[in-house]
Amino acid sequence: MDHVASPSRCCLSLFFLVVAITLLVRSWHPPSKTASSFLDCSQYSLWCTSKNLIQAKSNLHDKPLLIKQPQVVLPDYSSKTHQHPLDPLTIQEINQVLAILSSFPPFLSSFPSINSVSLDEPEKSQVLNWTIGHPLPPRKAFVIAYLEGQSHILSLDLASNKVTSHEIKSNSGYPILSKEDMTVAAQVPFSNPGFNRAVTDRGVALSDTVCVALAPGWYGREEEGRRIVKVQCFSSQGTSNYYMRPIEGLTITVDIDKKQVVRISNTGREIPIPHATNTDYKYDSFNNSPKEGLLNMRPINLISMVQPKGPSFSVEDGHVVKWANWEFHLRPDPRAGMIISRAMVRDIESGAMRSVMYKGMASELFVPYMDPSVGWYFKTYIDAGEYGMGLSAFSLVPLNDCPRNAYYMDGVFAAADGRPFVRSNMICVFERYAGEIGWRHYDVNNKVRESRPKVTLVTRMAASVGNYDYIIDWEFQMDGLIRIKVGLTGMLMVKGTPLQNMNQVLPHENTSGTLVSENVIGVLHDHFVTFYLDMDVDGPVNSFVKVNLVKEETSPGESPRKSYLRTKRHVARSEREAQIKLKLYDPSEFHVVNPEKKSRVGNPSGYKVVPGATAASLLDINDPPQVRGAFTNNQIWVTPYNRSEEWAGGLLVYQGKGDDTLAVWSERDRAIEKRDIVVWYTLGFHHIPCQEDFPIMPTVSASFELKPVNFFERNPILRVPPCQE
Ligand SMILES: *[C@@H]1O[C@H](CO)[C@@H](O)[C@H](O)[C@H]1NC(C)=O
Ligand SMILES: *[C@@H]1O[C@H](CO)[C@@H](O)[C@H](O)[C@H]1NC(C)=O
Ligand SMILES: *[C@@H]1O[C@H](CO)[C@@H](O)[C@H](O)[C@H]1NC(C)=O
Ligand SMILES: [Cu+2]
């Protein structure tokens, strides 16, 4: 639901909220009661000033409701004891990692830069065997460090304070670019007189110049053997949205380790810097006096969902989320952003918790821009492995990014020097009632009328990877469905152009995108987000079944009908049989089933992957970016579980050649029938920019679903009570 508040009301409540958040959100403690399996409808009502709603009854809209939240302890990271084998590393543990690495012989003479410190998950069998109250499997840390051209992959045992495995990789690919690397890369050009001249020649003051560090992709031997960053710059004069004011054609190749400029390409001298007018998006950059009117639209009053009895979910021991019939473990991760583990749903018949998914996360992104020119060809980002979705996820904005009564979870990550830092409010968890219907019927004959509201639980993060923002939601429904949604917003990556108006474009001329403002082209590009889904439907041993719809034709005289549809089930035996390209005229359902677990009437228990609106990559399969982004060659893949195969673009992606991708693994064609299997699904977007995307894009979303199929004996939300006032 869009939240467009009238200015005065909004600011007032935001003020209260800032105060309230400071005091309370960090100390939010989940209600200790266990969430009821059934919906207590009095908890869901709309807080809205339209006359036909709750306003008169509760009159809640004058009070900052956050004050009503239960108040308990502030999280104390120093003394945190682990409650679950998959809990992320704490500040204390990251400090311990730093201490172990500092006395590790290969790092004694010079200490590496630390690119990633995260939980080295216990073996799956250990996690599955663990139950609450039992000792945790040994705590381990997984570290990627970089020193003098070499990537070090380490596993550390935190109980014995030892490095238990150490591997040096010096072939294709480097670790994630650290924040420190990006800062250095963006500064290096300023010590180069040629660069400074190029900038000032364009009429941009050095003090107004903002430079960003761009991953170079991989385009052959020339750039191999050193870690490079492509730096491009913008004018921030007169706007906070410098991305709309590119210094076009100026690309500086920087050797990040030597901190040297390798090459300056300056091809856009004749291209003006687009003006600053109308580029800003900050609320206080507009004239918001009531007389002017912000939007000249009918104002929308402050809108929110209220839960007078508080939320119905709880977050136990910091990471175990329990809501309605769901239970799962949730943790922040520097690379994936957000990891859902051990997702289980309660069986309505037996009351038992049943496994659905062992682990789910955004594994990799691929964002190729469609402009082969010198300043643009390399823009083919693989964001999770080049920048880190978690490292790029900043604090969410209460009431705007997440609604009232959201629970906020902090990320604890390591900086390049190995020291821990806290990324506060990085993930939020909230219940959503968006006015949707769970199920309904009116029977015209016996006048039976039944209807149920749909309430869901959402976990959300938003990564700001440079200009773009990716909102990632995992939404859980009471009927067992999980919806995974990606929202795109933030700034287009734009190209400066001499063009002011489309009437200057000759009919045969091609631009690399849409003219979105004077001198600004929004360049055509794609976004792909590949999800890792380790499905464990009623246990790890599953099969992948393609349920194909085929047209059958009747024999002459058999029926008045000529044709009808039938389903044909095909169990994929090996990986290649599960490389799926979606086809509108050859449709299939994609089931993950447990062949050993049958329903009362004999159907195998399953979950299906339900593709949403999605786009496929149309690049040449041998184009260097597509080789690196080969995990998007199919929309669905299935691999046998292998704890070393989690990152679809490979472990070391930066400048990687694409020799460690999901496509490479899948070509081994391993057996996947009646195994522990992992499903990979790619959500894709073709983005043809339009003027509405300027100066900042309204959110565009797409989603896919994991939906129970013969998993429950019948509709699992039959007994949800109706809502009554
Ligand atoms: C499972 O846990 C029990 C105790 O909780 C332990 O005795 C047993 O060895 C464990 N099994 C495996 C396979 O780890
Ligand atoms: C524009 O694109 C068309 C079709 O791809 C091509 O034939 C034509 O040569 C292009 N024009 C220019 C000026 O590049
Ligand atoms: C597990 O993955 C790694 C990395 O791709 C690979 O080297 C290894 O052979 C895989 N193991 C199996 C059993 O497929
Ligand atoms: Cu886009």
TrEMBL record:
<dbReference type="GO" id="GO:0005507">
    <property type="term" value="F:copper ion binding"/>
</dbReference>
<dbReference type="GO" id="GO:0009308">
    <property type="term" value="P:amine metabolic process"/>
</dbReference>
<keyword id="KW-0560">Oxidoreductase</keyword>
<feature type="domain" description="Copper amine oxidase N3-terminal">
    <location>
        <begin position="175"/>
        <end position="274"/>
    </location>
</feature>
<feature type="signal peptide">
    <location>
        <begin position="1"/>
        <end position="27"/>
    </location>
</feature>
<comment type="similarity">
    <text>Belongs to the copper/topaquinone oxidase family.</text>
</comment>
<keyword id="KW-0186">Copper</keyword>
<dbReference type="InterPro" id="IPR015798">
    <property type="entry name" value="Cu_amine_oxidase_C"/>
</dbReference>
<dbReference type="InterPro" id="IPR016182">
    <property type="entry name" value="Cu_amine_oxidase_N-reg"/>
</dbReference>
<dbReference type="InterPro" id="IPR000269">
    <property type="entry name" value="Cu_amine_oxidase"/>
</dbReference>
<protein>
    <recommendedName>
        <fullName>Amine oxidase</fullName>
        <ecNumber>1.4.3.-</ecNumber>
    </recommendedName>
</protein>
<dbReference type="Pfam" id="PF01179">
    <property type="entry name" value="Cu_amine_oxid"/>
</dbReference>
<dbReference type="Pfam" id="PF02727">
    <property type="entry name" value="Cu_amine_oxidN2"/>
</dbReference>
<feature type="domain" description="Copper amine oxidase N2-terminal">
    <location>
        <begin position="84"/>
        <end position="167"/>
    </location>
</feature>
<keyword id="KW-0479">Metal-binding</keyword>
<feature type="modified residue" description="2',4',5'-topaquinone">
    <location>
        <position position="468"/>
    </location>
</feature>
<dbReference type="InterPro" id="IPR015802">
    <property type="entry name" value="Cu_amine_oxidase_N3"/>
</dbReference>
<dbReference type="InterPro" id="IPR015800">
    <property type="entry name" value="Cu_amine_oxidase_N2"/>
</dbReference>
<keyword id="KW-0801">TPQ</keyword>
<feature type="active site" description="Proton acceptor">
    <location>
        <position position="383"/>
    </location>
</feature>
<feature type="active site" description="Schiff-base intermediate with substrate; via topaquinone">
    <location>
        <position position="468"/>
    </location>
</feature>
<dbReference type="GO" id="GO:0048038">
    <property type="term" value="F:quinone binding"/>
</dbReference>
<dbReference type="InterPro" id="IPR036460">
    <property type="entry name" value="Cu_amine_oxidase_C_sf"/>
</dbReference>
<dbReference type="GO" id="GO:0008131">
    <property type="term" value="F:primary methylamine oxidase activity"/>
</dbReference>
<feature type="domain" description="Copper amine oxidase catalytic">
    <location>
        <begin position="304"/>
        <end position="717"/>
    </location>
</feature>
<dbReference type="InterPro" id="IPR049947">
    <property type="entry name" value="Cu_Am_Ox_Cu-bd"/>
</dbReference>
<keyword id="KW-1015">Disulfide bond</keyword>
<dbReference type="Pfam" id="PF02728">
    <property type="entry name" value="Cu_amine_oxidN3"/>
</dbReference>
<keyword id="KW-0732">Signal</keyword>
